[in-house]
């Protein structure tokens, strides 16, 4: 499965270098040589900081019903809320309605499954470490991955939820796509049908950009991909053979056995951060703090209820973080090492500009080493189940799959540091298609943004659009990967052949700004992919966009009191001067008393 997420200039053509045959061979190598297997392409949405997970879109049933599912290598079942669910939260999409799918069939009770009280239908139940749970019945229907997928719809078993608790109840995503090892896993079912190879890959976008790609099926690894053995018998999860951790080239004084406690070292795409056993965490924390001690200032975290370890003074440009924070290496049993840049173990402080916090925490009550999505940002991770290994390849995940799809050879050159597609000096991203007032310079440098505005032309009439404004805002929030509360309607005008809608994206929650990287991500998604609205709204097109830098808005906020006082003083002084002038004029210029018979000069009548 392959998914594009790149900015590409209008009418641009892809060119191979002079040694084109060599690059084409490498590209074919990466794409894989098993022509008998189909592939599907799907985009990843959301990001770690805003949502805590990445989602993909899955279509179920006939006609298809669409769902946003968290991609989770630690889960073995795929499930969505059922229309009959009495304890399900409010999620991104409507619940699945089995009675509206002509191809749906319940999985009848049998000896291989747990059954409902009536012994009619198979059931499932899943509980998670954060004490959330999901339970329901099992059904079978056609699933597909959208128009970009070469994989035709396939029948698969999935869960139809009747109950949710904890985070599963409150999250915005509809459900879970289970990619773990197990007969109910989407991977196991598709592999058993023989339609894909026994391998899948995930690629998560970088800090502040989000998005990414998922590849279901095999690809041949790049020559410089780093591998770790993954023992399928060690635990039900995807394990790594981690032996050492190095900070700035120096090995931490740890026994290798510390990474083999309980479930060992587990790589879990559904977990946000990373968690080390107590001794390993203490050693890691101390080494990082020692490295930055003379360079940065330690500050409190964004949430006082957590004891986050945060530092200020590093600047807001992610590509410069390696100048301050150390490189971290994870060394596997075969001697190969996965190098982590700062964005692979830090998250951005949500309240202090240029501050970052450690995204690796202490796993106090569990000796398992758990590596979540933060560890593999901007890293292609290949779960090669057939060969019992997991591969890592540093790259720009926001661009990976579209370049692979279109045969762009530059894909095969890893990017050592995150790049900014609007920074003017980026060498990895082509210039985006720009609107009349949109310009790369508007996001150049390290500006933070107070507001993003954009105009969309929709072929539906204004009167028909008005009742659906809230629904439109939800679709925009989903496609731009922001919270719905950040999307606001500015104006709605009738135009020939439709309507022109102006929207704004404001900072989330109590934040005063949208970070530079987050703004780049929003604009990138807006320009390259637009907003995908249901067919009932007709066609839509991006007309214009602009950003408002933080300084343009904060200057007024910073000087507001001074200006108000100054204007007040001026008004008071002006009125006082007027009354004084009027009073003296009245005294000096008034008519004096004269006797009736006194002489006075002739007055000439002046013409108008």
The coarse overall form would be globular
**The CATH topology of the largest domain, please?**
Cathepsin D, subunit A, domain 1
CATH architecture of the largest domain: Beta Barrel
Q: Strand content of the residues, in percent?
A: 25-35%
Q: What's the gyration radius in Å?
A: 31 Å
The helix fraction, in percent, is 10-25%
Mean pLDDT: 80
Report the CATH superfamily of the largest domain. Acid Proteases
- Quickly give the structural class: alpha+beta
What's the end-to-end separation, in Å?
89 Å
Number of helices: 10
Work out the count of structural domains. 3
What is the topological layout?
Elements: H1 20-31, E1 40-44, H2 48-51, E2 55-60, E3 65-72, E4 79-81, E5 105-106, E6 114-115, E7 122-127, E8 133-144, E9 154-165, H3 167-170, E10 175-178, H4 186-193, E11 200-204, E12 212-216, E13 226-229, E14 239-240, E15 242-247, E16 250-251, E17 265-267, E18 274-276, H5 278-292, E19 297-299, E20 310-312, E21 328-332, E22 337-340, E23 346-348, E24 355-358, E25 360-362, E26 369-371, E27 379-384, E28 389-394, H6 400-406, E29 449-458, H7 462-465, H8 469-480, E30 487-495, E31 498-505, H9 516-529, E32 540-549, H10 550-588
Parallel strand pairs: 3-10, 4-9, 17-26, 18-25
Antiparallel strand pairs: 1-12, 2-3, 2-8, 5-8, 6-7, 7-8, 8-9, 11-12, 11-27, 13-28, 14-17, 15-16, 15-21, 18-26, 19-20, 20-24, 21-22, 23-24, 27-28, 29-31, 29-32, 30-31
Biased composition (Polar residues): 422-437
Organism: Spirodela intermedia
Transmembrane segments: 562-584
């Amino acid at each position: 499965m392959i998914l594009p997420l790149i900015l590409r200039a209008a009418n641009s053509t892809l060119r191979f270098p002079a040694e084109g045959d060599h690059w084409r061979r490498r590209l074919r190598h990466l794409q894989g040589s098993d022509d008998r297997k189909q592939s599907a392409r799907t985009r990843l949405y959301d990001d770690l900081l805003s949502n805590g997970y990445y989602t993909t879109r899955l279509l179920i049933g006939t006609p298809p019903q669409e769902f946003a599912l968290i991609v989770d290598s630690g889960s073995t079942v795929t499930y969505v809320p059922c229309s009959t669910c009495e304890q399900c939260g409010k999620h991104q999409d409507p619940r699945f309605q089995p009675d509206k799918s002509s191809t749906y069939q319940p999985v009848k009770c049998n000896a291989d499954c747990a059954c409902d009280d009536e012994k009619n239908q198979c059931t499932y139940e899943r509980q998670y470490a954060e004490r959330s749970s999901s339970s329901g019945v099992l059904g079978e229907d056609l699933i597909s991955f959208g128009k970009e997928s070469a994989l035709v719809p396939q029948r698969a078993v999935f869960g139809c939820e009747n109950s949710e608790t904890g985070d599963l109840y409150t999250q915005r995503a509809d459900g879970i796509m289970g990619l773990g090892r197990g007969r109910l896993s989407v991977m196991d079912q598709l592999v058993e049908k023989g339609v894909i190879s026994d391998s899948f890959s995930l690629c998560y976008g970088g800090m502040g950009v989000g998005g990414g790609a998922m590849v279901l099926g095999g690809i041949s690894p790049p020559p410089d991909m780093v591998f770790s053995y993954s023992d399928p018998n060690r635990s039900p999860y995807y394990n790594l053979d981690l032996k050492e951790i190095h900070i700035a080239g120096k090995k931490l004084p740890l026994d290798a056995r510390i990474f083999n406690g309980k479930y060992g070292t587990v790589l879990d795409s559904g977990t946000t951060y990373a968690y080390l056993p107590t001794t390993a965490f203490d050693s890691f924390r101390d080494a990082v703090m020692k490295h930055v001690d003379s360079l940065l200032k330690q500050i409190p975290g964004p949430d006082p209820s957590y004891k986050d370890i945060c530092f200020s003074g590093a600047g807001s440009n992610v590509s410069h973080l390696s100048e301050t924070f150390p490189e971290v290496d994870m060394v596997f049993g075969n001697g190969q090492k996965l190098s982590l840049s700062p964005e692979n173990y830090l998250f951005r402080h949500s309240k202090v500009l240029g501050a970052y916090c450690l995204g690796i925490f202490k796993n106090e009550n569990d000796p398992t080493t758990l590596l979540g999505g933060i560890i593999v940002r901007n890293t292609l991770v290949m779960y090669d189940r057939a060969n019992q290994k997991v591969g890592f390849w540093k790259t720009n995940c926001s661009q990976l799959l579209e370049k692979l799809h279109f045969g762009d050879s530059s894909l095969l050159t890893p990017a050592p540091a995150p790049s900014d597609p609007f920074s003017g000096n980026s060498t990895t991203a082509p210039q985006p298609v720009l609107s009349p007032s949109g310009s790369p310079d508007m996001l150049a440098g390290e500006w933070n943004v107070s507001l993003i505005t954009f105009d969309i032309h929709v072929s539906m009439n204004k009167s028909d659009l008005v009742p659906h404004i809230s629904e439109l805002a939800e679709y925009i929030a989903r496609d731009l990967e922001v919270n719905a509360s950040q999307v606001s309607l500015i104006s709605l005008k009738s135009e020939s052949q439709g309507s022109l809608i102006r929207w704004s994206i404001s900072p989330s929650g109590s934040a005063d700004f949208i970070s530079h990287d987050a703004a780049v991500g929003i604009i990138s998604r807006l320009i390259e992919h637009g907003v995908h609205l249901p067919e009932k709204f007709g066609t839509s097109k991006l007309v214009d966009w602009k950003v408002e830098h933080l300084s343009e808005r904060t200057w007024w906020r910073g000087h507001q009191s001074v200006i108000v006082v100054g204007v007040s003083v001026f008004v008071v002084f002006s009125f006082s001067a007027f009354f004084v002038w009027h009073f003296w004029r009245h005294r000096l210029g008034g008519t004096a008393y004269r006797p009736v018979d006194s002489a006075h000069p002739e007055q000439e009548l002046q013409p108008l």
